[in-house]
Amino acid sequence: MKITKIGHCCLVLEEGGVKLMTDPGSFTAEAQEKITGLDAIVITHEHQDHFHSDSVKKLLASNPGAVAVTNTAVGKLLKELGVEHVQVGDGESTDIKGIKIEGFGKDHAIVYGDMGPCENTGYFIADRFYFPGDNFHVPGKKADILALPVAGPWMKTSESIDFAKKIQARVAFGVHDGMIQPFFRGFVSVVMKKYVPGTEYVALADGESREF
Fold it and tell me: 2-211 is classed in which CATH architecture?
């Protein structure tokens, strides 16, 4: 699987001739809107750093064969924009040109008090790659590649490391790191190497592509 990190949680996945984008949010609007050849846009939840409505409309216009894949809550927002979607919530799945997309989890992690709650769906893609969105929901199946949230107002580093320990993926890379200075992102590599040695951790830079 070829993975290009546009930034934060926006990724482009290429597997078996199929091209998918995850979470085109406000942090990465300019870069993500240039992507073409997409077959699907997968959106975990409605927060603006994951779902930038103007970008989604532009992407679907410039990628006429692409479909939006998301949960009920984001689906309602898309319908208000006049955009149809394929619903994949917790326990549901769909197939995009032979690539399976499965939904896991229901809730966004709490920031504090009543801040943060919304429907959050983690997505397991092509039976290999797990992208949890903003929660540490364990999918109950083996992930080969993990997009590991490493920063944010809803989490701390110890929770990220504990999640990586539970998933035990062959390889992981950091996401949800748009608020971290690039030079500091390597800190996660140090912690992962020490506490989760069974998982190879890659500090994937914004704009970088890797074959996994």
Answer: 4-Layer Sandwich (3.60)
